[in-house]
Write a structure and sequence with these properties.
The chain is of the alpha+beta class. 37% of the residues lie in helices and 20% in strands. The strands form four sheets. Strands 5, 6, 10, 11, 12, 13, 14, 15 and 16 form a nine-stranded mixed beta sheet that branches. Strands 7-9-8 form a three-stranded mixed beta sheet. Strands 1-2 form a two-stranded antiparallel ribbon. Helix 7 runs antiparallel to helix 11 and helix 8 packs across helix 11. The longest helix has 17 residues. It is globular and about 65 Å long. It starts with a strand and ends in a 7-residue tail after the last helix.
């Protein structure tokens, strides 16, 4: 049985909402009903837990927040924050039924492992029955606390290499686990101007073996996803087959794979590695030993599942301001939500997204197409291009007629926005390919018109702005252990 900590947590579950979605609903409700109260994600996390993050009692809830919750849910705040009665439990079968998007993953694992239909679902239910949800939360918290340098050291030891991207200078020593030879670094290749020769090839038919250890790790991944309400949708994604970089352009070949297959094979490597670091460097890594055992396997991108995506640093020109000071560029950084499949709780650039098609696999293979989609989804408020929210219904979701107002403004005149590929690497944590990109909005008019409307979606638990003129804070950011530049 699932036990709720507070009536508030139970009410949110009954609405089939994530905490992020409830925060959005509360914001909309407050506007429509002219309620002055506000409700942030971290505040809501404390409220549903019935205690502060340090374990102490919540204390007095702000009056405006209390009125907002009472108006929305029709109960006093004292009742909402109290533990539920015996009826405040939900059966595991009902809980699984409320997550129909997991069905594809459960069925895939049954087939891949050679199990009878329904076996994976039964294993997941059994584990959820005997494991307290706090165990999953503690494991997630422990993993999110592992720093970048610890991950880099572990991967370097495993692969016996120092040939990974690093930044060193006065007072700076940043090591990562991204394999990035010199010819893949400092590229500065413009995107979206006919420079990309990326092709969609036929499916290679590569399917990774599923040993007992790998199947065990996959069941654990699905159990945690079900318990913690992690979004896991069976969507198509591009798999890299070949990549070449020249002085002024790059080319590559991709085929189409399944996100579920990736999530239950190669994506298992991240959790295993983080647990290894937490348990001690000598802990076994049977999944890595099977899927990515050495540098030959890392570089054999055509012979394995090599998924990946883009990480884009967005820099937005801002005019001089009497409070902020001189004209600068706003640099946007997100903290990843607990509901994402990987890198939960980490700091990262935004947008950050998988390279995957929407409805047109050949057109969507371009890297600038992924960046535009991610900008729309993660900053400009378009939920209809979020594949995890349901099956796309629009024939052409990124048709100019469907653009958000900020995107339409940027595309209305050449030169308002430019995109560059600044580097490419293979992440030794998961074997993923990563396109490091820069998105620069050059026109200072964008910020006064649209700066107040930029808002992260459910994949982020918060945003922070850095000024390009603040070298001290930017340097501190680059060195933070929680920053995702593995």
């Amino acid at each position: 049985m699932r036990t709720f900590r507070t009536v508030l947590e139970q009410r949110i579950w009954d609405r089939r909402l994530t905490l992020e979605e409830f925060v959005q609903e509360a914001e909309l409700y407050a506007r429509e009903h002219r309620e002055p109260g506000t409700l942030g994600l971290r505040h809501l996390q404390r409220l549903v837990a019935g205690r502060r993050s340090d374990g102490q009692a919540l204390g007095q809830v702000k009056a405006s927040t209390a009125r907002l919750l009472e108006s929305m849910l029709g109960a006093s705040v004292e009742e909402l924050l109290a533990p539920p009665t015996g009826a405040g439990q939900i059966g595991i079968a009902d809980q699984m039924a409320s997550r129909p998007e997991l069905a594809g993953a459960l069925g895939w694992l049954d087939e891949a492992a050679g199990w009878a239909s329904g076996s994976t679902a039964a294993k997941v239910r059994a584990r959820m029955e005997r494991t307290n949800i706090e165990t999953f939360r503690e494991r997630r918290s422990r993993r999110s606390g592992i720093g970048r340098s610890q991950v880099a050291d572990q991967t370097r030891r495993y692969y016996r290499t120092c040939d990974t991207f690093a930044v060193r200078g006065p007072g700076i020593d940043v090591r990562t686990s991204v394999l990035m030879p010199a010819e893949w670094n400092e590229l500065r290749l413009p995107l979206g101007v006919g420079d990309q020769r990326l092709a969609l090839g036929q499916r290679t038919g590569v399917r990774l073996p599923l040993t007992a250890d790998c199947a065990e790790a996959a069941v654990q991944q699905l159990t945690a996803a079900a318990a913690l309400e992690v979004r896991l949708a069976d969507l198509p994604l591009y798999r890299l087959v070949k990549i070449d970089f020249g002085a002024e352009s790059f080319s590559g070949t991709f085929d189409i794979g399944s996100f579920v297959e990736y999530a239950l094979t190669m994506d298992l490597l991240e959790a295993e590695l983080l647990d290894t670091v937490a348990d001690g460097a000598g802990a076994p890594q049977p999944v890595r030993d099977m899927y990515l055992p050495d540098m030959d396997a890392v570089l054999d991108i055509a012979g394995r599942t090599c998924a990946g995506g883009v990480l884009s640093l967005v820099a937005i020109a801002r005019p001089a301001d009497r409070l902020r000071g001189a004209a600068d560029y706003a640099l946007i950084v997100q903290r990843r939500s607990d509901k994402v499949v990987n890198a939960a709780g980490k700091l990262a650039v935004i947008p950050k997204g998988f390279h995957q098609p929407l409805t047109d696999p050949r057109a969507d293979v371009r890297i600038d197409a992924t960046i535009r989609r991610e900008l729309e989804e993660e900053l400009f408020g378009r939920s209809d291009v979020d594949g995890t929210a349901g099956v796309p219904r629009a024939a052409s979701p990124m048709h100019p007629g469907r653009w958000s107002e900020p995107m339409r403004w940027l595309e209305n005149e050449p030169g308002r926005m430019r995109m560059e590929c600044t580097g490419f690497g293979l992440n030794l944590v998961s074997g993923n390919y990563e396109f490091a990109t820069l998105v620069v909005i050059e026109d200072e008019e964008f910020w006064p018109q649209f700066g107040g409307r930029l808002e992260a979606n459910w994949e982020a638990s918060g945003l922070t702005l850095y000024s390009s003129l603040d070298g001290e804070l930017v340097t501190d950011l680059v060195q933070q252990e929680g920053l995702l530049h593995r």
